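User: what does the whole thing look like in 3D?
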Amino acid sequence: MGRPPKVQQTLMTMPAEAPARDIARIPLSPDFGWRWAASLIASVAMVFVLAYAVGLAVFVGVGVWGINVPFVWGFDLTNYVWWIGLANGCSLFAAILVLRRHSLRTAINRFAEGLALFAVVCAGVFPIIHLGRPWLFYWMFPYPAEFQVWPQFRSPLTWDFWAIITHLMVTTMLWYVGLIPDLATLRDRARSVAAKRVFAVFALGWRSSIRHWAFHQRAYRLVAIAVIPLVLVIQSTIAFEFAVTLVPDWHETRLPLHFIVSGLESGLALILFAAAALRTSLRLERYIDDEDMDLIGKLLLANALVSAYVYAGEIGVALFADDFAQTAALNRMLGDYASLYWGTIALSVIVPQVLWLRNVRLNDGLSLLVGLAVTAGIWLDRLSLVVAGIQRDYLPSMWRTYSPTAPEWYLFLGSIGLIAALFLLFVRYLPVISMSETRHDEHLESRS
Amino acid sequence: MSRNDYGIIGEFETADQLIAATRAARDTGYRRIEAFAPFPLLNVSRDLGCRTVIVPVIAATAAVVGGAITYFSEYWMNGIDYPLNVGGRPLNSWPAFIPATIIVSAIWLATAAFVTMLVKCRLPRLNHPVFVVPDFERASEDRFFLSVLAEDPAYEPRDVTALLEKHGAVAITRVELTG
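Assistant: Here's the predicted 3D structure for the full assembly of 627 residues, as structure tokens:
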């Protein structure tokens, strides 16, 4: 028997009118219960699996994967595209909430920004090891090299390089700028000197001055403004990586739209999943209330309907396409990998339809499952596109099949462990709900 | 006023008291006022004459400059310094140079906004005289503070104390400059 999770007890016995301060009790509590520790151990174990898989790819080579011409992208790019879509979806959603000053932002923003950041970290692993010689990745950077050549800027791969670096920096800034006042609160409330010092350094000496607040709000909104075009361009850029090739099924102008819509949908699904998980595990119902869950559920449903439209449009485009493109698209829908395509439709378009029911939107367990189903559905979509999309290209001699090897699965599962570990640490040591925004909201509500 | 006097700070229980006290202090003629609250208060920052428009101006300028640097360095590298002729495409292939231009200008925009915020707030600064004020840690939680600084030409400790008291300050502290 482990010790009982103390945080949950203290939070459950909180008086109903307690202000935002109980959020700070979560990061400052000395003990977090065995469930958190067990989850962290499990996810760190998966991070070791990731390290092993990355080590294999680096020291043995990408030959350990099941990739071969024409399937040169396989699992690594599938996962990359999936993670970056999750990150972009979360970032876009968080940035829009900041700019709209929507009441949802108090509940969602902090962990949506965190999830975006962690998803970018996971995404960043794949293109680097995909290079085959990952230690030479800096060749993508324009530096005055010995051999006097520059990167080829007409290639989407260089756009991608900038996209990941920028995404990492801008998402970190969005997250961190929002965190500064809350870090100051933690500094002021921490009991142990060590914790106080750490929070003090990261709070940069924030002293809640009205002047600081004024500049802080401006900067926060400006970083959010930077995020919006950024995520749309990044999702499109990733779509261009497919679209600029001559592969019949990929050479399509509709791909950027497809990537933006499905990326945002997966991001919303991840947020729904995390919100339901936080509500059940940390008893945060007061902050992520029923109205918030209702709204995220509705947004996900609306996005699933837009996805349905995009998938329908895809079928229409395929039917009017030339012979090669039509064969390739129909092969993706009906060929060897048809199960991936129909799995996508089932999980990311049909399953979210249960969100029409209010009871489902308000049920944490079901919301959790729907969120998981949609993220899995979008993963199948990426796999279907990367693998089944290239199966019928112009050279019939290359028409074969692809299946991932164990090291590729390790990479995929390991990256899930990585995001889980980062998220668990974040939940433990930082406020998952923005305390300053919550206080501000309570103030405004008491006004009206 | 002694040489190492920082100012006088009063602690309030509600935002309304802080708003009223700030307005009164401003109307009395104090110019070097600092207010502290656990969340942004737009009225107070307006009363303090806090102009933040410089942040978006600098950020927008940085975005344009950064975008231009990105675009022209792409053009210079692929078109002039080491011309790359790929299938006869123009050396200034602007459509292909645009994605990185937009993406990189977002770094400039966000970084400029963040750095301008730090510079204008004079952060990071881990030590500050107000941190020794008793109860000041509640400024990041549920209390409101107003201080009139000693460098204010109209500064007179007794008047400031009276003003803070009149608006319902629960504690008034004289703050000394430290270190």
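In plain terms: Residues 54-81 of chain B form the longest helix (28 residues). Residues 14 and 144 of chain B are 7 Å apart (CA to CA).
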